């Protein structure tokens, strides 16, 4: 890892506020003077995440905030969902003469988070990106540590780690995690996200952020209404 870092002058550590990026930040402490920490504000970030970000901003020599596009992406492409029925796509809505526009969850993340981050890396002339991606992550980019694209090399120091090792390392470092890990399976990027149903977001929002919970439920109800007909037809097709 040291040899890779020494080859580069423009180094970015991409920080999300989740457990993996927190562990990565502490692991990379010997190199803080050589890198810049980047955090992308989705425009709908959890207050808990913002608290961590403020702490990190005070800790590291160089910290940059990137403006995300979640609100405008949803306005243009629709609310995110794990299921997208045909009648909720742009063509489906045009054919029906109305309806709720829905996009798949990965497209929403790509448009809201990943593209703005990558654009900033290129604009700042970054040649090495350090990220807390693990091979065991259920949600990860298809590239591996050492990959080079658009003149940018990617380094994933936690690639061989699993969640248990991350938690153990954070305990050793005396790092307290955000309270949403008590309920949710993963660190959330957006409060009002209506996708990633397996994460347990609704229960956490209901308890700690009731206003955001109401907005999330409004979107989930819209998805329920939009998918009901397609699900009913699907169940008939498979004999249920």
Short description:
It is built from nine helices and eight strands. It is of the alpha/beta class. It starts with a helix and ends with a helix.
Task: Detail the topology: elements first, then pairings.
Layout: H1 2-6, E1 11-15, H2 19-27, E2 35-41, H3 47-59, E3 63-67, H4 70-77, E4 79-81, H5 90-96, E5 102-104, H6 105-123, E6 128-130, E7 148-149, E8 152-155, H7 163-173, H8 201-208, H9 210-237
Parallel strand pairs: 1-2, 1-6, 2-3, 4-5, 6-8
Antiparallel strand pairs: 7-8
Helix pairs in contact: 2-7, 4-6, 8-9
Query: What is the CATH-assigned architecture?
Result: 3-Layer(aba) Sandwich
**What integer value in Å does the Rg equal?**
20 Å
Query: Per the principal axes of the C-alpha atoms, what is the gross shape?
Result: globular
CATH superfamily: HUPs
Poorly predicted runs of 5 or more residues: none
The major beta sheet can be summarized as: 6 strands, mixed
Number of spatially distinct domains: 1
The level-1 CATH class: Alpha Beta
Percentage of residues in strands: 5-15%
SS summary, helix count: 9
* Secondary-structure element series: HEHEHEHEHEHEEEHHH
GO molecular function: catalytic activity
Protein name: Phosphoadenosine phosphosulphate reductase domain-containing protein
Pfam families: PAPS_reduct
InterPro entries: PAPS_reduct_dom, Rossmann-like_a/b/a_fold, Sulfate_adenylyltrnsfr_sub2
Distinctive features:
two-stranded parallel sheet; single chain; 8 strands; 6-stranded mixed sheet; globular; 45% helix; Rossmann fold; 240 residues; alpha/beta
